[in-house]
Write a structure and sequence with these properties.
GO terms for molecular function: histidine phosphotransfer kinase activity; phosphorelay sensor kinase activity. This protein is an alpha+beta fold. The chain has 16 helices and 18 strands. It is globular.
């Protein structure tokens, strides 16, 4: 995923969170416009909210300032200009040059002597197949917007349509108490109203059904008690709530039957006539968690199904290598060698995926054995040596003599070393140098893989160990982002730790440490 795609997804995610964090229409509109205009560097952005054929609300952002406009103003805008055309035709429009399109209503600042021509995108905001608004984004430079910008603004408008619809419900609740009561009880999400201390004052029918407690029993309980949150949780977030922001938290809801339900919790402060309260919206995410588990099970099944035929291929290639006469064509033997190395790489990847699945599930390592370090290290080096030699790289191995054996899963630690060495060959330039050092330090044995590649940005030093994390730069090789995640899981499962030190344009050093096993008298094993 490139940087543009990542920032676009981040914007849509932030807008989605903002739209679900507040139901006040004016607040929602201003937040959407502010995020949208900042992302594309727009000069102005506006959104008109419609009820039938009439404008009932609107918001305008100009150079990051929210400006007030009357309902009459917004209805006049709908009569002429681009917004009116989009409303009547229910079609999105992108203008490369506003001075060249008659649908654009010229303003005084559009004159050549002032800010001049601009580019604009105008899209209908839809909700339940009805036009509920018009969203317009204007950039001060002509020919700025492209199809990607149009698709992005349309996505924002789609989310805004849902937000406008929900905000109208909220306004109705504020205006009509009876209607509020009906919507509160009929909400598809469990909702609890509490005091600022988290003590429940009121719950809707969905909350009563989800918790299994009668309404009169729920009153007086605290949400911290139901969700097993720390007693100080609300106090720790009082500033966030006081600023009008919404808290988001995944938790386990304990029901009356002492069973648990995974929920996503959204907490916000609401101003009531008799004082501020907290609104807790609980979303049952049981199905999502089950789907996650099903996905993991499916992945594990696929990996298992891949292992068997791949093992057959590897065995067949090794048999061919053994049966092939020494005098045969060297080119044929070279091709066979490439095939053997490539299938070996595939097998290591599949085993890595399986180990990630098992280790994340908390399964212990069952195949530990006392293992000599030097043979293990040289086996890992031999695996990556052909690639390093093809790039003219020098691989230097330094092993401290008389190191004690380690109680480890040899295959897993070998793959950790191969992953780190493989990364070093990828990031090290042609004719560069890679050093693998193994030495004892206190009660641990440390393995350090150093390269003289481009280095890692400081803000990425921790992120790179996360699953699917990749460095976003043209100079970095592409990958699926599982290698270092596996390394961290594997090392930690052995009671060790892994870290990286890096300087830009100088190189990186990945180091992991494994504990030396203890003898029965509690002393570490003597050096051999």
């Amino acid at each position: 995923m490139d940087e543009t795609s990542r920032t676009t997804l981040e914007l849509l995610y932030n807008i989605s969170r903002e739209l679900t964090s507040d139901l006040d229409l004016r607040t929602v509109l201003s937040r959407v416009l502010m995020l949208s205009s900042r992302h594309v560097g727009a000069e102005r952005a506006s959104i008109i909210v419609l009820d039938g054929n009439q404008a009932v609300e609107g918001a305008l952002i100009v150079n990051d300032l929210l400006l007030e406009r009357s309902v009459e103003h917004w209805n006049n805008v709908l009569q002429d200009g681009l917004a009116g055309w989009v409303f009547r035709n229910r079609q999105a429009v992108m203008l490369s040059d506003t001075s060249q399109d008659e649908r654009w209503a010229q303003r005084p600042d559009d004159a050549v002597s002032r800010t001049g021509a601009k580019s604009a995108i105008c899209v209908p905001v839809m909700a339940r197949e009805q036009v509920v608004g018009i969203l317009t984004i204007v950039h001060p430079r002509p020919h700025f917007f492209n199809q990607e910008h149009l698709a992005l603004v349309q996505s924002i408008a789609d989310q805004a349509g849902i937000a406008i619809y929900n905000a109208r419900l909220y306004d109705s609740l504020q205006a009509v108490t009876r209607r509020y009561r009906e919507l509160f009880d009929d909400s598809i999400d469990p909702i609890c109203i509490t005091g600022l201390n988290g003590q429940i004052l009121e719950s809707n029918r969905q909350a009563i059904a989800l918790t299994g407690y009668p309404a009169e029993v729920l009153v007086g309980k605290t949400m911290q008690e139901l969700l097993k949150l720390p007693a100080e949780w609300l106090k720790d977030h009082v500033e966030t709530l006081g600023a009008g922001q919404t808290l988001h938290q995944e938790a386990l809801l304990w029901t009356a039957s002492l069973s648990t339900v995974p929920v996503e919790v959204h907490v916000r402060k609401v101003a009531f006539p008799n004082g501020d309260v907290l609104q807790w919206i609980l979303q049952d995410i049981t199905e999502r968690k089950q789907l996650d588990a099903l996905r993991d099970d499916l992945m594990a099944m696929v990996y298992h199904d891949l292992r068997s035929p791949l093992s057959n291929i590897i065995s067949s290639l090794e048999m061919l290598n053994m049966l092939l006469p020494v005098s045969d064509d060297e080119n044929l033997r070279a091709l066979l060698s490439i095939a053997i190395r490539s299938t070996g790489r595939m097998q290591r990847l599949i085993n890595t995926l399986l180990d990630i699945y098992r280790l994340e599930a908390g399964q212990p390592i069952t195949s530990r054995a006392m293992t000599e370090i030097a043979p293990l290290v040289y086996e890992a080096v031999d695996t990556i040596l052909p690639v390093a030699e093809n790039k003219g790289q020098q691989v230097d191995v330094q092993i401290e003599p008389n190191l004690p054996p380690l109680n480890i899963d040899a295959d897993m630690i070998r793959r950790v070393l191969i992953n780190l060495l493989d990364n070093a060959t990828k990031y090290t330039l042609f004719k560069g140098k890679i050093t693998l050092s193994v030495y004892r330090k206190g009660e641990r044995v440390e393995f350090a893989v150093r390269d003289n590649g481009p280095g890692i940005p400081p803000d990425a030093l921790e992120v790179i160990f996360d699953k699917f994390a990749r460095l976003q730069s043209e100079r970095f090789p592409k990958g699926i982002g599982l290698g270092l995640a596996f390394c961290r899981l594997a090392v930690r499962s052995h009671g060790g730790e892994i870290w990286v030190e890096s300087k830009l344009n100088e190189g990186s050093c990945f180091t992991f440490a494994l504990p030396i096993p203890q003898t029965e008298d509690g002393l570490s094993m003597k050096n051999n």
